[in-house]
Each structure stands twice: as structure tokens, then as C-alpha cells.
Amino acid sequence: MTGDAVASADAPIGLVLAAGLGKRMRSDLLKVLHPVGGRPMVVRVLAALRDAGLGRAVVVSGHQADALRSTVAVWAAAVDPMEVLWAHQAEQRGTGHAVAQGLAAVPRAGSVLVMAGDAPLVEPGELRSLWSQHAASGAAATLLTARLADPAGYGRILRDDAGRARAIVEERDASPEQRRIDEVFTLVACFDAAPLHGALARCAPANAQAEVYLTDVIALFAADGLPVDTRIAADADAVLGINDRRALARAEARLRARTLERLMDVGVTVLDPQTTYVDDDCTLETDTVLHPLTIVQGGCRVGPRCVLGPGAHLRASVLAADVRVWHSVVEGSRVGEGCRIGPFSHLRPGTELGAAVEVGNFAELKNARLGAGSKQHHHSYLGDAELGERVNVGAGVITVNYDGARKHRTRVGDGAFLGCNANLVAPLDVGAEAFVAAGSTLTDAVPSGALGIARARQVNKPGWTARRRAGPPAGPP
To answer: Is the pLDDT of residue 446 over 50?
Structure first.
């Protein structure tokens, strides 16, 4: 979505159909809540309406209404100027019945743009063109149609001898001749609200599904002499709904390709688009390079000249310029300029790295801050810790931050040296330029410039190995 969309005063009200469970998805999750490109389908539909210039939308809920409302509320709270209203379809009796429920929240004056909540790839420009054409044509309805090589499953557009749309026939109710028609209705349309109210009141469930179809109003409009206009979609695949997991996978791939093309247009190198996954709410700057098996999700912001992958997984993180991440996971973190992460590192939420920090093999950080130039190269854990600049973290260093009930913080000053296999039992302070001896388990603070040692003195026993091999001395029991 774009952040600077402005609602148009003459725009229609959006009406999003989101009541159906979506049985063909074979899922306990409401169909429109399945994510595409990291965001639920229905959120993408609302974002497209908003970006097309609509200021208000009515969402028709049904199954899992509470989950639907809470998901939309999170998005709507951060969006201006989209206002989301609600209607409820307690019993799912078809698209026409759903629209009728939504129209209760729509004034009879003006127009309404109806679309399904399972069409996440519809472009805002397509929607704007549709309602602009509707406003200019004076039609009672303007349908967005598509021509498909395989139209099976979709309602066909029936035209009269003059080429005007006169009806829509659903697949189950179509004759063999009608099923050969390749122009289908996409379930996206603009209507004048007043005639739509009247036509829906006259619709009856006289079809194979015993449902009230929205498509039936087109024949009623034609019979009443009300003009019906059409617009053929520029991209048929982008305007069709998602009904099953196969279609979900195709939509995911299409959105991913669209996102990667946009990134390449602004100067990002994508070495293998087939194995690179970037959510469209992420921003990557010029001369960043994405290697295969890289995933960037959750609104990440990546600076220029970064190198991600192979095998990098970033989520909800901010990377400054010239960062390298490979075979590692970075989530909920902020990474300073020129940092090197990986391979096999894990930056958990709350981690902050200063400039030129190095984090290496099997190093884990959680809610930790490392100052500029610090190094944590291998097999170590820093949790709830704050390290200054130029700190060396030896192999096997652990901040013991959890006492079974509460988390405690460790603080390490600039230039400190933490020897291998040291345990820092928090809460604990290690001063600037202090040294912690390898193998120490510290429970008390180490002053600046001091050497902290907390281990038993070594004892060597000469000849012990030979005596052990000889066994116990012979003699009476």
C-alpha cells in the first residue's frame, strides 16, 4: 500500500465480502485471513481500496467475525483516511444476500464498489479506473470482467446483439453453449446504490445453490432498462479470487515476482528471484544484493550496499548501510552500519548492534546491545545485556540472565575482554577495560581495569593415570 493515498470526495463506498469460511481451503482459518505476502488477504483488499481513493469501506463478516474484526482493526488503526464500517451476515445465503447486509450501512444516494475479500492482487489503479468509468458512463452498474482461457467455475457474461451486458449466468446454472463463453465476472463491480437496493429486494434463490446471487441483479437492471457497463481487466490473473491452496500459492508467487521487480527497478540485485522472498512492505535501498534462499519479511528496512544471504532470514528489523548477513536469522533488531552477521547467528527481538559489530558462528543475542566495534564470534549467548564499544566476547560466554522467575541485566564497559567459557550471572557489571578470565563464573562486579577470576585453583596429581589403570591393590576384602 502507499502511505500517501488521499480519499477522493466523489469516490464510492467500498463493500468487501468476507463472510464465507472458504471450504475449499481445507482450513480452520477464515479464508480471507490467510496471508499473501505477509498480510491477510482482506487487509490487502482494503489497502487497494484505500489506495484507489476510497475513504470508507463496509466489511461484511460472518464466520470468525471476531478474528476478522480484530485483524482489520489493527490495520485500520494505522491508516488514514480509510474508515472501516461493519455489517454481519449471520447465515451465509449467497453473495446477493451478503451485499444486502452491507448496504444497510450505505446511503441510498451515491455509489458502492463491491468486491470479494479474497482478491489480494487487485491493483488500486484497476479499481480507480473502474469507478471513474462508472461515474463517467452514467450506468447503473459497471462490471469488471476478465477473459480466461479456462473460465470454468466463474459466472459468464451474457451480451445482447448490440454487445451490451444483459445478464450473468453462474457456472452451475449455465448451458453447455454458455459455458463456452470466455468472458467472466470477477466479483468486482461499481453500482449506483439506489437501484442496487431495489434489485436485491426482488432477487430470489432460484438457482442450483438455493442462494441469492449478486449476479442476478444484472438481468433485473437490463429488464428495467438500466444501463450496464463493463470494463475488461488489464490483468486477468490479478483480479480473480483465491479459492484453494493452489490459487494461494500462485498468488504468493505472483506477488513475490511483482515485489522483486519493483526492487530491481530501484537498484537492488536479486541473484535468483525463484528462491528469494521479500514482503512488499519491506524497503531495500540501492546496490543491496540478495543471494538465494533469502527471506525478508515484516516491514524490514534495509540500507544501501547490504549483502543478504545466502540463507538470510530477516523479520521486522532495520539494517543500516553496508551490512552483511548470511545463513542467519535477524528478527526485531536494529543493526548498525558495516556489521557482519553469520554464519549461523541468531539476533532475537530487542537486539541493537552499533557500527562495525561482528557476530559469528552460533552466537545468539536477545534484548542485547553491543557497542561499535564489539565482537561476538562464536558459541555464545548474550541475553538482556548491554555491552560497550570494542568488547571482545570469547567462545562460550553466557550471560546468565534468568533466575527462574525474573530476567536480570548484565552491563559490560568499553574495551572489556570476556574470556572463553565465562558465565556472567546477572545482575552483574563488568567495568571498562576489565578482563574476565576464561572458565570463570562471576557473581560479583568486576571493577574497571581489573582481572576477574572465579574458578577453583588447578591441582595436578602425578602418576594418577597409571594407578587408575592398575586398579585397586590386591588383598583381603
So the answer is: yes
Taking the C-alpha atoms of residue 51 and residue 7, their distance in angstroms, rounded to an integer, is 8
Q: State the average pLDDT over residues 428-452.
A: 97
**In terms of CATH, what superfamily is 13-239?**
Spore Coat Polysaccharide Biosynthesis Protein SpsA; Chain A (3.90.550.10)
Kind plus residue range of the DSSP H or E element containing 229: strand 228-232
Is the separation of the CB atoms in 24 and 50 below 8 Å? no
What is the rounded distance in angstroms from the CA atom of residue 185 to the CA atom of residue 33?
A: 23
* CA 355/CA 263 separation, integer angstroms: 25
Count of helix runs (H) and strand runs (E) in the chain: 10, 41
**CB contact at 8 A, 305 and 323:** no
What pLDDT was estimated at residue 3?
Answer: 44
Q: What angle do CA 416, 419, 424 make, to 5 degrees?
A: 80
- The answer to whether 71 and 36 have CB atoms below 8 angstroms apart is no
Q: Do domains 13-239 and 262-452 have the same CATH topology?
A: no
Helix/strand/coil for 467: helix
pTM: 0.86
Query: Treating both helix axes as pointing N-terminal to C-terminal, what angle do 193-202 and 216-223 enclose, rounded to 10 degrees?
Result: 110
Handedness of CA 256, 261, 265, 267 (dihedral sign): positive
- pLDDT tens digits for 190-219? 999 999 999 999 987 765 566 788 999 999
What 8-state DSSP symbol labels residue 261? H
| CA-wise closest residue to 342 among 371, 314, 383, 302 | 314
Catalytic positions, written as ranges? 378
Domain boundaries, the chain: 13-239, 262-452
Residues 6+ apart with CB under 8 A from 277: 256, 294, 295, 296, 297
* Contact call for residues 353 and 334 (beta carbons, < 8 A): yes
Summarised one tens digit per residue, pLDDT across range 43-97 is: 999 999 999 999 999 999 999 999 999 999 988 887 766 899 999 998 888 899 9
CATH number of 262-452: 2.160.10.10
